[in-house]
Amino acid sequence: MRAATGVGRTGAAAVKRREAARASVGRAGAAALKRRESARASADRTGVTISPQLHAASARTNAPAQALSTASSPLSRRAAAPTAPRPLGRTAALRRALLDWYRRERRDLPWRHDRDPYRVWLSEILCQQTRAEVAAVAFERFVLAFPDLDALARADEDAVLSLWSGLGYYSRARCLLRAAQSLRAAGHHNVPDDSTRLRALPGVGPYTAAAILSIAFGHPLAAVDGNVIRVVSRLARLDRPDARGEPHATLAQELLDPAHAGDWNQAMMELGARICTPRAPRCPACPIATACQARTAGNPLDHPPPKPRRAREIVGVEITVTTDPAGRLLLERGAFPLLRHLWLPPARLRSGDLSSYDFKHHILHRELRVTLRSQHTASRPHRAPRVGQASVIERRFFEPTALGRIGRSSLLAKALHHAALATHPEQG
Ligand code: SF4
Question: Has residue 4 been placed in a domain?
Fold first, then answer.
């Protein structure tokens, strides 16, 4: 973030210089210049340094952009009370406070033991949609099975999906495997320090690319995920970001400590996950509380405003648990639209009255109401029944001991649990 030195000069010479500059840059340039001046003027009033882009975006969102406290701001006056935390001052102080807190308080997560790009990438994919503590357990078993990119690229999909069991969002696992194979095919033995190459990988968007590049390679790029959006929204009392993630992305980039980009990004995420949480921010424990406008205004929960919740969708499902005389279990994959790449007992969607069911299972916003049938096949077939639906990829009988080695949803475990309680299985 740039300093606000030299701002606020009002002498005739300065006015002349500005006019000359306006004349030379044309209309678009003049607008930019005006924005710069407006930002400078704001900085001059408050001592806050903030970019012209953010100033303009902040004005659009009706948010006071002067987020970071200064000696002259109302926030600083409040922070000067004897019981209040020490004022942070400018961005350098905010950075120092957050980094010090992170280095002191961070959780001992296994991917923080080194900055190996493969491990950083794996951790970032695992942490998408999964709590860090849960992702940490999966990370350990993953790196045990696939310690490096070469090993992952050689894996078969079932092995990868089986390690992903219980984490949900299974497309992440399939993307991970395809990305590893694509990197190996291009001759890489680790995740490359190459933004274009990274962004072309399946499952790697702008956030994940910035996280990998900053943590593994030290690039000064802000990684802006939901946690970071929440933190900067509250710091600057911003509305929800627009489709390009603005103005939050600009503010996050300005706050980033370029000399410690990896730690900074992790510190912001850690803060959002543990302190500045969605529904119960712990402001008294927050290391950057004195710079936070939402805290000063007493309304952190209003920033960003909550998203309208997606309506719950109720889906009827019938699952048939079929065993053969040897106790093997019939599973298939490909037929059930919501979990197409995972092994399940034959399942079909059902309509009609969904008020009675054996158990519920949730997939994203969908509530599956599952009824269960159990059947034993009378003979011991060498082959599974013929695949009827065109979409079924595969159908096989499995020994119960093999279930731990295949890609399976927790829906399978639930179905087996409930089927074991069924007292009168039908004869098939
Ligand atoms: S002071 Fe409260 S609302 Fe502001 S960043 Fe810290 S935890 Fe979040």
Answer: no
